Amino acid sequence: MTTPKIVLIAAAASLALLSAPRAYGAASAWSVNDPSQVRLITAAKVAPNAGEMWMGLQFRLKPGWHVYWKNSGDAGYPPAVTFQPEDVLGKPEIQWPAPQRFDLPGGLVAFGYEKEVVYPIRARLQPAAAPAPTPAPTPASTPAAPGSPNTLKITADLDYLVCQADCIPFRYTLTVDQPVGIPAVPDPETAPLLQAALERLPKGVGEMAGVSTEVALDTYSAALPDLEIRVRGARAGAKTDLFLETNDALEGGRPRMKIVPDGVVFHVAMKPKEANKPLPAHTPIAWTVTHLEAQGHPFSLEARRDVEVSGGVGGPAAGSAPQPPASRERLARLLLSAFLGGALLNLMPPVLALLLAELFVLRAGERGRVREGAAAAATGIVGAAWLVALLAVAAHRAGLPAGWGAQLQEPVLVAFLAVLSAMVALNLWGMVEVPLASPGSAGTSGTSRHLLAGLLATPLALAWPVPQLREPVSYALGRGPATVTAVFAVAGFGLALPYLLLAVAPVLLRVFPAPTPAGPWLPRVREGLGFLAGAGAFWVLYALSHQVSAEGIAFIELALLAMSLLAWLRHREGSGRTFRAVLAVGLLACAAGALWLADHNRLAPRAWPVAPLPTTLSTQTTGPNNPLPGGRKNA
Amino acid sequence: MRRTLLSLAILSLAAAPVFAGNAVGDTAPAFTLKALDGKTWSLAELKGKTVVLEWANPNCPVSSRHTREKTMIDLAKQNGEVVWLGINSTNPNSGDYMKPADELAWNQKNGINYAVLADPTGSTGHAYGARTTPHMFIIDKDGKIAYNGAIDDDPPGRKPKAQRVSYVGRGLDAEKAGKSPDPATTHAYGCSVKY
Prior knowledge:
The structure holds 2 protein chains of 2 kinds. Chain A has helices at residues 6-17, 86-89, 190-199, 328-344, 349-364, 370-397, 411-428, 446-461, 470-479, 481-495, 497-504, 521-544, 550-573, 577-600, 615-622; strands spanning 23-24, 31-32, 36-42, 44-46, 51-61, 66-73, 80-84, 93-94, 100-104, 108-114, 116-125, 151-163, 167-179, 185-186, 212-218, 226-232, 235-244, 250-252, 256-260, 263-272, 282-294, 297-308. By secondary structure, chain A is of the alpha+beta class. Chain A folds into 3 domains: 14-133 and 143-199, Thiol:disulfide interchange protein DsbD, N-terminal domain (Immunoglobulin-like), CATH 2.60.40; 205-308, Immunoglobulin-like, CATH 2.60.40; 328-541, no CATH class. Chain A has a 5-stranded antiparallel β-sheet. In chain A, strands 15, 16, 18, 19 and 20 form a 5-stranded antiparallel β-sheet that branches. Chain A has a 4-stranded mixed β-sheet with strand order 1-13-12-7. In chain A, α6 runs antiparallel to α10 (481-495), α6 runs antiparallel to α11 (497-504) and α13 packs antiparallel against α14. The radius of gyration of chain A is 33 Å and the shape is elongated. Chain A starts with 5 loop residues before the first helix and ends in a 13-residue tail after the last helix. Chain B has a 7-stranded mixed β-sheet with strand order 2-1-5-4-3-7-8, covered by helices on one side. Chain B has a two-stranded antiparallel ribbon with strand order 6-9. In chain B, 29% of the residues lie in helices and 18% in strands. Chain B is of the alpha+beta class. Chain B contains 6 helices and 9 strands; from the N terminus they run αβββααβαβαβββαβ. Chains A and B meet through α1, β12, β13, α6 and α8 of A and α1, α2, α5 and β9 of B.
């Protein structure tokens, strides 16, 4: 299509401006266009002449088209309406029913309504200005003649945008001649419509007994604060969803939902809108949770809180904003905490498995080479920690989730950790001869093998978000690359602590039983440790299950199983060189497949920019843009 | 072993500059794109100048209303020292896609005299997090994003033009005076970018 829609749109808009026929009573005439129709309704045949009066904007939409919630999401805009006469109606307010989510091409998302929706509108009639009080009108079946003193001529100037993938703006003037008087008479057609719409409005917290909601903004990771919203006392289901209103300082990503026994918890990665500006101390967060159920009643919940941003000790500032010089004690405390955190990581199953395997090998090896081997492993650990620091700085610079724990937010990275843990397990089971230190080979090449074991220990440790490292890392990210490097190096030294101790005092190794030539218990211990590494792989898969669809997890597990199968085959039957090479390639392909699966089954859109792709490729991935066959009818 | 280490280090270094953020204050993501007339534009070559990016799509009624009202056209004219660039990230599979020659002809007919760059892969759009047409960015002379959001405060275009708050107009005035735009971010409105 090459002819722009502009001319036709202009024509549609000018047609729309021809005022719709005036209606009497409780509804305007429908204003009709191709994708939608709209009218103004009021709840009453005869409205009270003072106090609250309910009206509504009733939309009917063609399948596939939607109109918007108060936060329209990534695109669109909400309807805007003004009413006349203002001296009688005041400034009526639109109420917003619980919205739903619409996914658009390119990972964009919109919030709004499809098919049919009534936006309730509350007006407060200004008594002084209301039409002159008149004797009670004749029965409601014969409404007052238009223009008589007890008729209120309501005019609504409405602008709205209706979209599927395409959007069309419309502008209408809707009018209702509303009889006003005492007694008020509800309209049997429109009053139930408005009643239903009012029931679709989200409830406030106080309106549902036993239901509560909480919010917390975790700013430990300064680059990407985590918003946690929890609802207690209500049942959630697969359709339950969270909608945030717009916030001046922070932009919310796609919520991740977890149903818990007493309710539901959402986590939303919040991105500061300004990289170098400290976040305000408080920020208003307003949210709606839909499709809840309590005492057998479906409902949505709405809440608004002033949330403390600088709650974390890590400080609220993001980016490389100038910060007041921190006290020396604080830096020392944080470095100590980083060291402890690093040391603690040695207890995490796959790391522990690797460490114990190493220690046994060192014990079995030549006594004089213990120091050298331990030093090599420690060097590997600290060296890898530097690389991790470098990557953390790069990710932070890029505005990606950075901070201790953020590494578990990226499916590809988590899948990589799963593959790594599985490889370590397979190695310990003796099925994969990654050139790790193994008994009997602690000879000439032993040192470099210990170095490699050290290099591997650091990425394995990344799967464990020990709390001791959170504050130091987020603090460091706020201060710059030098601090980040220092913190990671210190944590690396913590992780390397067992080896450092051995390098200083090889005698400590004596606490391990020496291998006896009689019983081959050493291989058995190694194989047993393999299960510890396997447990680590399972934990990582659990972490991954929050970011990847259930199908994705199932296929990733299959890929890991296939890896194990190939490793086993290679170990068992791999006598021919070509055969072994083919199996090794297959194994690596399975590992790469696991990463690919994680990337393509992610629940939240990717946080990093997509690299430029050849046009043909990118069009395949974004898919068809226009869901209606035959192109747009409205254009 | 040493070689492995070295290549690892080089790899991680190489990965660093690939990323750039799209929040205000971040270095604006680099791009090199062809304009509709075939001329190549590169952000790197515009350093030292204030740059405005406008996500454009002539088939989006919100963008075309602004074209009709000359919102961007007039603002670009008033700020002659600023480099004003349209970017069209419409996917060639979308019904909204126009061939560069057709789009250029349409732009000329409707008074758009600034360059509009074609981003058919959407990679530049994604790098900036462009969501709507029109979605506006101001890039300051140091190549940092100074404003990210809507063109003005009136999504449906209900108010007379003179009564609207032009966020981009104010932002450019602030840049000229050596200050930062305030507000620096607003909620962009319009059609979704047809990635």
